[in-house]
Design goal:
heterodimer; A: alpha+beta; Aldehyde Oxidoreductase, domain 3; 3 domains; eight-stranded mixed beta sheet; 30% helix; 24% strand; B: Enolase-like, domain 1; five-stranded mixed beta sheet; 18 helices; 31% helix; 22% strand; globular
């Protein structure tokens, strides 16, 4: 890329929809004026956790006045499966067997939702309850996996463990997390002529929704157009989960010939959609007196729910991150994607990575307590780097140690050592409150591990007035993708931002797109849009060179104009002239990520193009009488390469951190003994509120460090990695708790560290300490 | 009887004769007015995406307050001005200062919660600076899943320095005059299809209506009944709303202490109650959110008999008595006696809670109140505790320990109280009381907390009370100092 000063990229421009957001004029799907005759759909849910479905008679529902249709599995003309990997384990409507409490059984459509809801109660359903499997442990005992697990292995782990001077083993449970996007799942379907179907879906993956609608309706994909202008939050929860509701809306529209809308209320949304996987990790580590790890063995078992969904790649990614920044001389990691009679868990910001990383940091913490070293020192001693210490468990080389540089700078800038000493003094003098401090790093692999997903397309139109419409395959869920990609196009074409309009994402404009996921949105779509812009630019340069009789190299492309010698014309005039000369002013762009490859069966390859890194120091104060706590201060240093838009990236870092903090602290999913989710609304499921934000919160980007790989303007992906910076909060809480036993016992504080869990750990450590003293 | 609902939507009068009694303001805005800037995030008053601003004439000026449209019933707008995000743009089409501050701070990402934040901030802007709660308390009722809140708080802080005047304020006199003209002493009676909503304007009319309709659903701020409608899809009728009964909303100091009218909102009660029992503020300012405290009534929190309401423990500890009225007949009872069993209260058909009388503290009274929940703000208590300990020369003359979340009803720890009574106020006495509490409660496990945690915390809060009284503990984590930076 040419090394000229940038006018538009790298600048902190506001979100392209900011004014529409604050005025309430931004249109979400439920805000679209309904076409006349639009039906509203009620989704009927199963009241059993696991059951054989003997009979489902919808006739009484259909006969209810006002009901236009009632549809179940038997009414699906195509295939009753929306599993993203086509395993036939993810039905639109339960068929033969109910697999979890709340599973959609059928849909009822009427002009008013109330009519449909009340009529649904008249269905005659017979079922025979079956014993459910509810826990990871039980599923593991039964060996029931939704998909094949993965093993990553390097070196002789058994020997490494055996021969290590010290060795310990433990278990960690990691809680799940609801996405709690503010806009629930929603779709509006509009039937057209000859079986056409146009669907507005709140989805991160319009191409998959298109494909699923075609499968379910039994029609070709070219009849189906899926459109998404924006989502009111996604976080992974609308990667596969949107399909079901879009398919149901399309089914109702296809059957009735009328427009149909399905919008889930909050409770239904939280009951029927998948969440972040909870994990059960068994770890063993061998290490020496100096805290250097010799060998690590981990089993990572995940509660996947009743179907595979994305659990294969999610548990794979957990393994890819169970090293975090640490070199394991010998290692064996195995995943167990367990089947349970609960909702099918799915993608969520980090995609398994956070769970793997938590396990890695727990192992570090164990070693620190066992050796009496500062956990930060144990981290440093085990960082990748140095002779023969750069190979990950998946045999990819770690080529740069930016995390180590970040950790040292952050430790110095945030006065880690001084504060740690001061906290020790505070804790000695304080009977009722304890402080804790922790610094944890993040190294997160960037690229879809399904290699074929790493492609993107764009379609750019220049109209005769010189205005540009940008289409690309990515979707906007608040992360600022559209403004970033528009910045790329404006930069390349030398136009001001207001000349670039980003169109709603549509499968009719850019086909066969990948999900906007894996933090890849701007890496992939930015490059595709750049390619399209370059194609158009080349055509225009060729045209004007020809017109002026000069060489193409003599044409200078300047902001808003072109020049060759003394001849100059504006962009608008050039466009009109090119149009009249019959030059195509529309171009596609395509990109595929270079260098990556992955052989899953061998457990070897280079699944990632690069790593995004950062680190955070968190300080907490804990009330020993109740377990309540506050996050007092957080300092973050995070690497986003040469940021495409520093304001947007800062928002991703802060928002990701706070979301991660919620996952690890107050966000607790609770199922009862019958397997019914009891926390399905904000009254019972507590995401962070504004008062939970760390009292002092310093966020800095690592500056002057362009991505060493050739990414879009040398930026780095930022969507997911910052979530894992919040691991520092869990470790700070653990540090505070550990003080009650004089830092001699690893608290093994499992997330979510609710006040109750913290108090339980405090009491447990006190008892253990007094037992130790008695012995 | 007046059979026409009247309110202002922005500056446009709305006069409706046919009104579904359980239609929420949110549904009305989105479906009928087609104002779709106001969003539904949860339909239970917990996320604030539907925040709108309700204006009422008070003392010749308009008082503006943020409320949740999702659980507010349309007839509750009677005599009010409703402002939504669509009303904010300046007359020349430019952004309102609140909107501009949000844009400049990069305070929206997905944008779905944004109109709610904008309206919550707008209500703050129109609230006299001295009456505004701290910013983080003021925005605790608005959830954002994207930003981490920093930019929103930054926008909010910038606005604190902004003078409040805008195009809406310029028309304030005209708005006050119109709404004052509408004010009447008639009972509002609107409905549809035989289902009715009554809003009497006097206590007498209320008493008569309830005699006529003893099975009516009595509505205070709709922060509980609203959820019956949105979550359980119930359609109670008739509904009798206390919100227009002015004498029922009075909070007044009497000889005995404080008389809190049943229709007084949390917002109206916090100040006067905290002036008698300063620590009551520690719990009340964390009840729900600004939006909820602007609507929810203390009378409703008592009358609904919830075991996890936060006001009963405070009031029971203080020794409050309940005044009940049926027609012209009145009864008075200690508040704790009102709660008979889970979901059952000592309220007869046609009877209503008229007021709570809170006695003044005696000299030497120690009063402490605590709320422990998973999240500090806008969360239902795992345990709520309030202690009134009357000390006489270092000894406990009398103790009232009241708890929420520990039993099927708000309940006193009578055995623990007995362990304190007459004994020196010492750690040993407190520990004896903590042990005695074992037999006072057998709490349950649920998604908020385990039985074991509840019991431990219930005891430890008494210890904390003692430690605070000796000065050994002087801080509480629930008080979030304003964010140092953003």
């Amino acid at each position: 890329m040419p090394d000229t000063p940038r006018r538009i990229v790298h600048r902190p421009l506001p979100h392209d929809s900011a004014a529409a957001h604050v005025t309430g004029e931004a249109v979400y799907i439920d805000d679209i004026p309904e076409p006349a005759g639009t039906l509203e759909i009620h989704l009927a849910r199963a009241p059993w956790t696991h059951a054989e479905l003997l009979a489902l008679d919808l006739e009484p529902v259909r006969r209810t006045p006002g009901v236009v249709c009632a549809l179940g599995a038997a009414d699906i003309p195509g295939i009753n499966d929306i599993g993203p990997t086509h395993r036939h384990d993810d039905p639109v409507f339960a068929e033969g067997r109910v697999m979890f409490w709340g599973q959609p059984l059928f849909a009822v459509a009427a002009e008013r939702l109330e009519t449909a809801r009340e009529a649904a109660a008249r269905a005659r359903i017979e079922a025979r309850p079956l014993p459910p499997v509810l826990t990871i442990e039980e599923a593991r005992r039964r060996g029931d996996l939704v998909t094949e697990g993965l093993v990553l292995e390097r070196g002789e782990v058994a020997r490494g463990l055996r021969e290590a001077p010290h060795r310990l083993a433990g278990r960690m449970t990691i809680g799940g997390q609801d996405h709690f996007y503010l806009e629930g799942q929603v779709a509006l379907a509009l039937p057209g002529e000859e079986g056409e179907m146009r669907v507005w879906s709140s989805t991160q993956h319009p191409s998959e929704v298109q494909q699923m609608i075609a499968r379910v309706l039994g029609i070709a994909a070219h009849r189906v157009t899926v459109v998404v202008r924006r989502m009111g939050g996604g976080f992974g929860g609308k990667e596969t989960q949107a399909s079901q509701f879009a398919c149901i809306a399309a089914l109702v529209a296809a059957v009735t010939g009328r427009p149909a809308k399905l919008r889930l209320d909050r409770d239904t949304d939280m009951i029927v959609t998948g969440k972040r996987h909870d994990f059960l990790v068994d770890y063993e580590v061998g290490f020496d007196e100096d805290g250097r790890i010799r060998a690590v063995k981990m089993d990572l078992a995940a509660r996947c729910g009743f179907s595979a969904d994305l659990s294969g790649p999610v548990t794979d990614r957990a393994l890819f991150h169970a090293d975090n920044c640490y070199f394991y001389p010998a290692v064996r990691l195995e995943s167990f994607p367990c089947r349970t009679n609960t909702v099918s868990n799915t993608a969520f910001r980090g995609f398994g990575g956070p769970q793997g990383m938590l396990a890695a940091e727990r192992v570090i913490e164990e070693v620190a307590f066992a050796t009496g070293l500062d956990p930060l020192e144990v981290r440093r001693r085990n960082f990748y780097g140095g002779e023969g210490r750069d190979l990950t468990p998946y045999h990819m080389r770690v080529e740069e140690r930016v995390f180590a540089e970040i950790v040292e700078r952050l430790a110095a800038e945030a006065d880690y050592a001084e504060r740690r000493a001061a906290i020790r003094v505070f804790n000695r003098e304080n009977a009722w409150f304890r402080r804790g401090l922790a610094l944890t790093p993040v190294k997160f692999g960037i690229a879809f591990t399904a290699t074929w997903y790493n492609q993107a397309g764009a379609l750019l139109h220049i109209y005769r007035d010189g205005s540009v419409q940008l289409n690309h395959g990515g979707t906007e869920m608040g992360q600022g993708l559209h403004v970033k990609v528009a910045q790329v196009v404006a930069e390349e074409l030398g136009l001001p931002m207001e000349r670039i309009a980003v169109a709603a994402t549509s499968t009719g404009r850019v086909p066969n797109t990948s999900a906007t996921a894996a933090s890849s949105g701007s890496d992939l779509n930015g490059m595709a849009a750049l390619a399209a812009a370059r194609t158009l630019k080349r055509r225009l340069i060729a045209h004007i060179a020809d017109r002026w009789g000069v060489g193409e190299r003599e044409v200078e492309w300047l902001p808003g104009r072109v020049r060759a010698g003394r001849r100059e014309t504006t962009f608008e005039a050039l466009v009109e002239d090119a149009y009249r000369a019959r030059v195509s002013l529309s171009a596609t762009g395509f990109y595929r990520t270079p260098k990556i490859h992955w052989d899953r069966s061998a457990g070897r390859g280079r699944p990632f193009l690069y790593f995004a890194c950062g680190a955070a120091v968190s300080e907490v104060v804990v009330d020993l009488l109740t377990g309540e706590y506050r996050v007092e201060r957080v300092d973050i240093l995070h690497d986003v390469g040469d940021s495409l838009n520093p304001a947007i990236d800062l928002g991703q870092i802060e928002g990701g951190f706070v979301q991660g903090m919620g996952w690890l602290t107050t966000e607790e999913l609770s199922w009862d003994a019958e397997g019914r989710l009891r926390t399905h609304a904000p009254s019972t499921y507590k995401i962070p509120a504004c008062g939970d934000r760390p009292r002092v919160f310093n966020i800095r980007r690592l500056e002057g460090r362009p991505n060493r790989e050739e990414t879009i303007y040398r930026s780095k992906a930022v969507g997911e990695p910052p979530l894992m910076l919040a691991i520092s909060v869990l470790h700070a809480l653990s540090d505070a708790v550990a003080s009650v036993a004089d830092h001699r016992i690893c608290p093994r504080l499992d997330p979510p560290a609710t006040p109750e869990r913290v108090l339980e750990a405090v009491d447990r450590l006190r008892e253990a300490a007094s037992r130790m003293a008695a012995e | 009887m007046r059979r026409r609902l009247r309110f202002l939507l922005g500056h446009a009068p709305r006069e409706l004769d046919e009104v579904e009694p359980t239609l929420t303001v949110l549904e009305y805005l989105r479906r009928i007015e087609r104002r779709r800037g106001t969003k539904e995030g949860c339909a239970e008053g917990d996320c604030g995406a539907c925040t709108v601003v309700l204006g009422r004439p008070e003392g010749g000026r308009m008082a503006y307050r943020a409320v949740d449209a999702c659980i507010l019933l349309l007839p509750m707008l009677d005599g009010c001005q409703l402002l939504t995000v669509e009303d904010l743009r300046m007359p020349d089409g430019s952004l309102h200062p609140v909107q501009r501050a949000m844009v400049e701070a990069h305070a929206s990402q997905c944008g779905f919660c944004t109109p709610g934040f904008v309206m919550a901030l707008y209500a703050r802007l129109r609230t006299p600076a001295g009456e505004r709660p701290p910013l983080t308390d003021g925005l605790a009722g608005n959830l954002c899943r994207c930003t981490g809140y920093g930019p929103i708080l930054a926008a909010g802080r910038r606005l604190e320095e902004t003078p409040g005047g805008d195009h809406l304020e310029a028309r304030e006199a005209e708005t006050v005059a119109l709404l004052e003209r509408w004010r009447d002493g008639e009972t509002l009676a609107v409905g549809r299809g035989g289902r009715m909503f009554y809003a009497p304007a006097t206590a007498e009319a209320l008493a008569r209506l309830l005699l006529e309709h003893p099975g009516a659903t009595l509505l205070g701020g709709a922060t509980d009944v609203g959820l019956w409608i949105t979550k359980q899809h119930r359609r109670p009728s008739p509904i009798v709303w206390t919100g227009r009964v002015r004498d029922l909303a009075r909070v007044e100091e009497t000889e005995e202490g404080l008389r809190i009218g049943a229709a007084a909102t949390y917002r109206e009660v916090i100040g006067p109650l905290a002036s008698l029992y300063p620590d009551a503020d520690a719990v009340l300012r964390r009840v729900g959110s600004v939006q909820i405290r602007n609507l929810g009534t203390v009378g409703g929190n008592i009358a609904n008999g919830s075991p996890i309401g936060d006001s009963p423990p405070l009031l029971i500890a203080a020794g409050a008595e309940l005044l009940l009225r049926r027609g012209e007949a009145r009864r008075r009872m200690p508040l704790e006696d009102f709660f008979l069993a889970y979901g059952r209260q000592d309220r007869r058909p046609g009877e209503f809670v008229e007021a709570v009388v809170v006695p003044k503290p005696a000299p030497g009274t120690l009063f402490r109140a605590y709320k422990v929940s998973k999240r500090f703000d806008q969360d239902i208590s795992s345990v709520c505790a309030a202690f009134r300990i009357d000390l006489d020369d270092g000894r406990v003359a009398a103790a009232r320990l009241a708890y929420g979340g520990m039993a099927p009803v708000p309940k006193r720890a009578t055995r623990a109280e007995r362990a304190l009574a007459g004994r020196p106020w010492s750690r040993a006495t407190v520990e004896a009381a903590m042990a005695a509490m074992e037999r006072d409660f057998s709490p349950i496990d649920d998604w908020r907390a385990s039985a074991g945690y509840r019991m431990t915390v219930a005891r430890n809060l008494l210890l904390r009370c003692w430690l605070e009284s000796t000065g050994e503990i002087d801080r509480r984590l629930d008080r979030a100092p304003e964010m140092a930076n953003a």
